[in-house]
Amino acid sequence: MTFLPIVTRELRVASRRRATYWVRSGSALALIILGVWFFLMMRSAPPHEVALVLFRILAGASVLYCLLSGVRATADCLSEEKREGTLGLLFLTDLKGYDVVFGKLAATSLNAFYGVLAVVPMLAVPLLMGGITLGEFGRMAIVTINALFLSLSIGICVSAFSRSARIASGTTFFLVFLFSALLPAAGALAGFFVKAHSLQFLFLLPSAGFSFYMGFDAPFKAVPRLFWGSCCVIHALAWIFLGLAAFIAPRSWQDKPAGIRGLRWRERWKLWSYGNSAERFAFRTRLLDTSAFYWLAARARLKPAQVWAVLGLLACAWMWGLLKFHRDWLNVGLYFTTAFILNVLLKGWVAAEAGRQLAEDRKRGALELLLSTPLSVREILRGQRLALQRQFLGPLLTVLLIEVVLMLASSKETATQDEIGFMMKTWAAGMLMLVADVIALYWVGVWQAMIAKNPNRAPSATVARVLSNLSAAAMYSSRYSAFVV
Prior knowledge:
mainly alpha, 24 helices, 0% strand, globular, disordered C terminus
């Protein structure tokens, strides 16, 4: 019997797909456009400074892409097979758990791997300008591949446990965020309150962001073992998740009735999210008076609260930094970084929700029933828009207000009148692009929900089409780019 037969088959199938070749060219082209954009914005700076900023931005974008690849590529690969009832058929053969897991990994992550394979050589371009060493380039290549391997492994492991696409994608994103950001934040808190530096480093080692930071020459030469230790921990975690997926996949494909405890928790979650019968009736009446599809897309009352909760957590983290670092926390670079995080978070969330209801209805076959009712297409789109407006309008206005405050604070940190004017225009352009991108994400998200072959990938396709115009980077493509890094 051929070793890993599913992998062999999937690689042969992928070799005949046109997208396999276009992904490599598209990824390299996107990184080239991003690099040229920043190069033109910083053409008056010294070459070594331009090279340093370009390298950090391009490497950071590559690592971020790798960390999010698991959410898009592998988070729903096994859970989709469960929902369609085909996973059990695979285990009626002589296939083992690792055959199926590695086969699905090869099938779903090949394009992501090819994208990284095309992007990594582009990171060597700043070497020609000076300011970057060969060791930094090599270490960043290791960090990028390592981050991709971890993200894909987490996604396929979560998929082995899950049946719902939304739960699988959300859990994968949470675990990636946990290892990349929450654990380092916990380590920082431990170092601040307990004064235990060894404990702090234990929290930092699983983070790809920490290995990214330690990959640069200055921190690497100071403590090289931390970089290699972080890379080894991340790599080991990836293999642990893969092994867990191979172990659980043959044992989790059967439909199992929920126990009494599971039913109780499910009922509690339903009451918490939708309310009791009286609350549901009042909420349903109010939304149905506006639009029937508005009620269908906005039945979960707590969705706006989830957005506010995330913004509240970010505000707490920002205030913690202010209390810890005092005046050093207030600088132009941090203002731009804060706005960047808020913009990316809001845009990504809008893209995930823009066509979600329509995509789910289309996959279940409920969209045909909707179109057979007196509801017109215009009314359906209006209901979807009102649902998004209910969820994101308040947070969007709050983020714009925060960015206005950060813009005024940035102007006080700037010396000359010309720099103040340039900075005001940059902030205004960023806020304008935030509003424009949110509107575009709504329309493109609805369109992708209707045409995507896999509705679960409609959000990523929406982001690729709307945000590939570098609107997120336009706000930061100025002479202050160095502060962002």
